[in-house]
């Protein structure tokens, strides 16, 4: 049987990989994928503690996080496509659309 500690270690590893991806990469698509990894780590924590305390509130919150992540992915992909059409790049350093 998998213990809560093992779930927390997995979530910590996913969260760490996500944070490193956000901080070190310059490709916007990889940055959004790293944000999704962070949200999945949060979901694993919510479900693990929900199982540990034998309550359903963590699983309900995890469903809300999944919904927000899906909306974020849809809006983020639309923004990425619009930026690529204007600037012809997905490099975060080369996008200066909001600068004067």
Structure report:
It is a single chain. The protein is mostly helical and 100 residues long. It has a single domain (4-92), classed as Orthogonal Bundle (Helix Hairpins). 78% of the residues lie in helices and 0% in strands. The chain has three helices and no strands. It has helices at residues 4-24, 28-53, 57-87. The longest helix is centred in the last third of the chain and has 31 residues, at 57-87. It is elongated. The relative contact order is 0.13. The mean pLDDT is 94.
Q: Roughly what fraction of the amino acids lie in strands?
A: under 5%
The CA-CA distance between the termini, in Å, is 58 Å
Task: Determine the number of helices (DSSP H or I, runs of at least 4 residues).
Answer: 3
**Shape estimate:** elongated
Corresponding CATH architecture = Orthogonal Bundle
Helix fraction bin: over 70%
Number of domains: 1
CATH topology: Helix Hairpins
Oligomeric nature of the chains: single chain
Total number of strands:
0
Q: Kindly report the average pLDDT value.
A: 94
For the biggest sheet, the summary is:
none
For the record, the CATH class is Mainly Alpha
- Given as residue ranges, the uncertain stretches (5+ residues, pLDDT < 50) are none
Radius of gyration: 17 Å
Short overview:
The chain has helices at residues 4-24, 28-53, 57-87. By secondary structure, the chain is mainly alpha-helical.
Describe the protein's topology.
Elements: H1 4-24, H2 28-53, H3 57-87
Helix pairs in contact: 1-2, 2-3
How would you describe this structure in keywords?
mainly alpha; 100 residues; Helix Hairpins
């Amino acid at each position: 049987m998998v213990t809560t500690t093992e779930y927390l270690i997995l979530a910590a590893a996913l969260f760490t990989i996500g944070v490193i991806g956000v901080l070190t990469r310059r490709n916007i698509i990889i940055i959004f994928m790293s944000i999704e990894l962070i949200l999945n780590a949060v979901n694993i924590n919510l479900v693990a503690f929900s199982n540990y305390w034998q309550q359903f509130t963590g699983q309900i919150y995890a469903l809300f996080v999944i919904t927000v992540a899906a909306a974020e992915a849809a809006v983020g992909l639309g923004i990425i496509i619009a930026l690529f059409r204007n600037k012809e790049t997905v490099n975060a350093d080369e996008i200066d659309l909001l600068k004067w």
